[in-house]
Hints:
about 140 residues; 5 helices; ph1033 like fold; alpha+beta; 6-stranded mixed beta sheet
Amino acid sequence: MKYWLLKSEPDTWSWDDQVKEGPSMWEGVRNYQARNNLMKMKRGDLCFFYHSVSEKKIIGIVEVVKEYYRDPTDETGKFVVVDVKVKYKLKNTVSLEQIKLNKKLNQIALVKQSRLSVMPILKSEWTEILKISNK
């Protein structure tokens, strides 16, 4: 199993939208590096659900339930989606500021490649973020 972080603007697609919708496709990615990350995801992989822009915090965890396929919203045919479903909401959200202040997370892609919308997370980073959430 691998770990990932998916970013969404809460005004566009929020955690609450994901909860209401149930299993659904993660669509609209239009960056090649993010697309390549979607293509590496496997069924059962876990992803942090991150509210970007106005909130900048991890809200919960979703699970990949269907591996990549063509994004039906992309007219060029170059981009893909995966399907995800809600696993659970974090006990406490984890802010970007908390992540930046944690020395164990100083190499995390969220800080190093802040504009990337789909990124891998190391198991050690995953574990550390869960520890922060449980405090």
